[in-house]
Structure formats: C-alpha cells, structure tokens
Amino acid sequence: MLYGRMSSMDLRSGEIQPCDEIEIENDRAKFSEVIGTQHSSWKKISEIKITIGLTLKSKPASHWIFLFLSSTVMLVAFTASSLLSRAYYAGGGRSYWIISWAAVAGWPLIPLFSIPFYIFMENSLSPVTLKLLTWFVVLGFISFIDNLFFAWAYAYLSASTASLVASTSLVFSVLFGYFIAKNKMNLSSINASVIITASTIIIALDSKFDKIPGVTSTQYALAFLWDILGSALHGLLFALSELVFINILGRRSFHVVLELQTMISFFAFLFTTIGVIINNDFHGMRLEGEVFEYGKSSYYIIIVWTAVTFQLGVLAGTAVLYLASTILAGVLNATRVPLTSIVAVILFHDPMSGFKILSLFLTLWGFASYTLGHANGKSDP
C-alpha cells in the first residue's frame, strides 16, 4: 500500500484535478475576521468548526463518501483478518504456510476492482520494464516473508498481544521512510516511536502471564521476535513501495496504485504457493479440516474469509492512503489495536493483565502523538 494525497477527482478520467484554492482562501480570511473578536475558549471552538468546514468544502461529497466507506472497510477487514488467523490456530490449525497463503490467495480481488478504471475511464496499463518487474518480484518476496512471520506469530501469541506488538510497524515505517524514501522525521515521529517501543517492552515483561496454554517460553519468545520482524518488513515494504511508485512509475493515479499492489500481492501469492506445495500443505489442509475443532465447514470458511478480509483491507487501505494521508491510516491503525484486543478477549478469552492494559494505553498514546504532531505540521512521514 502506498502513500498519497488527492485534491479532487475527475470521475471520468480518474486523474487528480486542482481545487478552487482562491475561493477557499477567501473563506478562510472571512472566517478569520469573525473569530478574531471572540474570547479564547470560543475562538478555539470556532477555529475547529471552521477548519472542518473548509476541509469538507475543499472536496466533493463523493470524495468523503468514498473515504468513509474505505476507512470503515479497512478497520473492519484488518481486524477480522487478525481474529480469523487466531481462530485458525485456536481450532487446531497448525500450518504457518496455509494461513500465510490464505492472506494472499484473494489477490485477484484487486485487479477485479481495477477493471472499471480501464473500461469506463479510458486509462491504460503502465508499461512493465525489466527494472519495474524486478521491483515487483522483490516487493512480492518481502510481502511473502512478512506474511509468514505474522503467521508464525499468531500461532503462539494471543490475538491481543500480536496486534499490540505489530503496532511497532509505525516505528519501522518512520525509520525506513526517513532513510529510504527521504520522508521528514519530526519530534512527534520520534516521540511516538519511543512510546510504542516502550509498550512492546512492557508486553515482553508480562510474558509469564500472557502465554497461551500449551505454549512454551521458547515458542512465545520466537513468536514475539517474528512479530517484530514482520512489523519491520511491513515498514520496509511501505518505504520501498513509495520509492518505486514515485521514482519509477512516476504517477499519482489511483489505478496505478492498484497496479503496483496487484503485482506485489501476485508475487507474494506465487512465492507462498511454492512453499505450500514443497511442504505438501495442500494435502495437509484436507486432513486439518477433518479434525478441526469447530468443524470441517468452519475450517474452510475461516480460510476463505481470511483471504477475502485481508485483501479487502489492503484494497481499502490503498484507497485511504490515496484519498487522505498516512495520518488517517495511522488513526485507523490505532483504532484497530484496541478493537482487536477487546474482541479477542471476548472471543478467545485472551488474558488482559495490568501490563497489557498499560501497553495498550501507551500504544494509543504513541499513535495519538504521531497523528496530532503530523496534523499540526501538515506533513506526512
């Protein structure tokens, strides 16, 4: 998924069109005169209302409807995908390959969604050079390893713990974005990185009380490590994807973002499928279904919906990052962490100790610091 910002969209061409900046600046000047005569408390409220009004006015209604739908789908889909992965293991699933394969098996959903851009909006496919194809393979391989690490993590960590540890992806996104994509790093980014790192350390200190029954200390420690490594690869994937999109593809059109995401998902699917075949896990899938604790039909429902929800999350996340910014994606990520934790406690009876509650609080604090800092600075990482 990639970073991007959109002013307004011509629905016929799909390309970005400039907003009426003069009209907005005139409104801003008029409103500034009004709030200048008010007391400080009411002035703050007026400023917030005016900012919201000007923001809404800067885009057509269709933009906000699409952004709302994309945000909702991203939040629900990624939360559901995480919980389904844990349900696979809780029901007796044992293969890391199968659950990581399920995450990318739904990759055709993205090109299916892209079809209207080429049929009705007269867009053309981006030419594929050897250099671009090489990048597709590299990014697909990183995505494949990333999914495999997360699959290992969910095998031995509770869903709530796995989601909290995975929040470190923001830290790695900031670091790799700074060194690779040359994004700006400000105090809010550094502060958020330190706070989220501290929350991860707190979770590690609580390992004695947080382990799933039957999981050894070694398995827990390795799963914790895989989760962090997966988060690191996730941040690296974001930075490299942004680099490819800007420096090689050179266009900021939504259908081009979907093209890049399609190729990354396809090669991730290809690499994962090879691993599943070598490990003979397609045959093992049938055997697992026969002895699955929740029933054979539930087993295949979990596999199918893991594939669907993960790709819907990717698709919706791509739309959010393109229509809004990485800031909004960060807010949704922050919202997903407590949502996943709460649902996991209800469905899987995950332990919720004082350490984990403190870690959850620090994670939200870190995301809030990051979001507010970049919102005030009006810059993306």
From TrEMBL:
Domain of life the protein comes from: Eukaryota
Protein name: Probable purine permease
Membrane spanning stretches: 64-84, 96-120, 132-155, 161-180, 187-205, 225-249, 256-278, 298-324, 355-373
GO MF, any single term: purine nucleoside transmembrane transporter activity
Protein family (similarity comment): Belongs to the purine permeases (TC 2.A.7.14) family.
Compartments reported by the entry: Membrane
Pfam family, one: PUNUT
Organism, scientific name: Zostera marina (Eelgrass)
